[in-house]
Amino acid sequence: MSVVTRRETSRHTHTVIFLHGRDSNSQEFADEFFESEASEHAGEPRTLPDLFPGIRWVFPTAPILHSKRFDTAMSQWFDIWSVEDPEERAEIQTEGLKQSVAALIEVIRAEETFVSRQNIFLGGISQGFATALATFFADGQQFAGLIGLCSWMPFANLVDDLKTVSADDEQLLSAVHKMYFGHQAPEKPLSPFLRSTPIFLGHSIDDETVPIENGWRMRDVLLVPYN
């Protein structure tokens, strides 16, 4: 998996790994991302690198996969029929999601050679955060936090079903892990790490691509292991 990196400008203290959305790429997204400015007074730090000089920014690039709906190759973390309704033909998502999660775990491990896992934030926008969230369930021990924008939870309806038959949080999280990846979760309990990880979710109320209802549903599902 190729990545675009914006290096820290002072002592490296944290890394943010941030995944772009569908039909985009890491360079395009990074360029747009760093155009954002805070509303500070003139002469004061306004861009993200200026505000957080110790952060190394890492933007992985999604693979080019065939879209079954549009019958063309496009940049996407996994194939999906509809971002408006992620549950529609959800079966086409599984294989690409597993492959992207495996590749992202390698990016995370590479960053762990610079800073500890506790100093790595994992985030993304739209399909990028859906992939980051699945990675969190696959290998979510001791991240500094998650940052999700305008996104959804993969297979949220199945997670809802699992909630009704799971005896406790640990059983639920293990079942979600198995649903995503087809095998049992690691022996080490998942819930203490998931409970202790801060999660920021942001979503535009008038998002015309990913309805905010998808974000609300993700929030509601994620609240369960934290209650």
Automatic annotation (TrEMBL):
Name a GO CC annotation attached to this entry: cytoplasm
One family name in Pfam for this protein: Abhydrolase_2
In terms of InterPro entries, this protein maps to: AB_hydrolase_fold, LYPA1-2/EST-like, PLipase/COase/thioEstase
Organism equals Exophiala xenobiotica
Q: Which residues form the Phospholipase/carboxylesterase/thioesterase domain?
A: 8-160
One Gene Ontology term of the molecular function aspect: carboxylic ester hydrolase activity
What protein name does the entry list?
Phospholipase/carboxylesterase/thioesterase domain-containing protein
Q: Which family does it belong to?
A: Belongs to the AB hydrolase superfamily. AB hydrolase 2 family.
